[in-house]
Amino acid sequence: MAAAPLSRKHLRVQAVAAVAENGAAVQAAEGQARPIFPFTAVIGQEEMKLALILNVIDPKIGGVMIMGDRGTGKTTTIRALADLLPQVPVVAKDPFNSDPFDAELMSEEVRQRLKAGEELPVGSMKIPMVDLPLGATEDRVCGTIDIEKALTEGVKAFEPGLLAKANRGILYVDEVNLLDDHLVDVLLDSAASGWNTVEREGISISHPARFILVGSGNPEEGELRPQLLDRFGMHAQIGTVKDPELRVQIVTERSTFDENPAEFHKKYAEKQGALTQRIVEARTRLKTVAIPYEFRVKISAICSELNVDGIRGDIVSNRAAKALASFEGRDEVAVEDIYRVIPLCLRHRLRKDPMADIDNGDRVRQVFKQIFAME
Fold first, then answer.
1. What sign does the dihedral 350-286-81-244 (CA atoms) show?
2. pLDDT mean by block of 10 residues, the chain; 375 residues
3. Which residues cross the membrane (predicted)?
4. Residues acting as catalytic residues
5. Which residues, at least 6 apart from 137, have a Cβ–Cβ distance to it below 8 Å?
6. Is-contact 63 319, C-beta < 8 A?
């Protein structure tokens, strides 16, 4: 007799238990319903992969915008990142993923419980990755207040939205350049304040909404609003692979995965586990990484030379360089770290020059070499 199929709840419990032993095992438990291509199996697109990893190491970098031709693996790579995300401590049964040890990342309800002397129940969860569909309503994104319950029972009945689920995690918007303006405004407000406020009929509820904003899109389908583009800490630009042998390798790997996802995941389980461990160690080491004062001065000199508006470019470049040094297992930033990350941090902040015959990333590298006196 065939065994009865496992329920979704049972599968979820199995997956959570497995991740404690090996991050790659989660995919094996959940992969039957929705197989995800392994991150370490993605061929090429190193710039995009580096930007995603650095944002997981230091969420305060501010997210990443990935622009490129259709069919270049943008969505595949971003979704593959979910399998590498480490565990974080949370207040048990809290709908906002509150951090039990950081007041800035607690909901107001959890703060009140802590102030009252209650011992908070602590659990753990994988850093969440939440998709924001293009057709989502504002209520679905922000959450809704049950007005009837609030008026009849005098309690604030709140149904959390996508921003609540994405708190302390990743919010992914595919084709972000096609997102409706009203949703762009919601994202701008939350990204600027780190909080989401819902107001209905004189009732107001706020909750933390600090997330890594990851967007992807095709530049041929429209430009992104400058206000939203500036909110992305990094900007990765990818193109179609031209090398015929590399294209054949990509097609072969994808075909093998489609034929038997479970076996394909076993093949990359060790690499997946090793990369997850590197990310966990880098997140821990990050606080000890230093960047020499002279390097910080030169980063700001590059931003000034390129006429970058504001200071956000300086801040993100410093953070990204430290995250890369931590990922490489070092306690001090090297010149090479800055060279690798600064085009990602500044290319989308340069003013457009229709007469320019050079890519923005190459412009950043040129100025970098001048400031750092590199050949």
1. positive
2. 43 39 40 74 90 94 90 88 88 89 86 88 91 88 77 72 91 89 85 84 82 89 82 90 90 93 92 94 95 96 93 95 97 96 93 70 91 76
3. none
4. 312
5. none
6. no
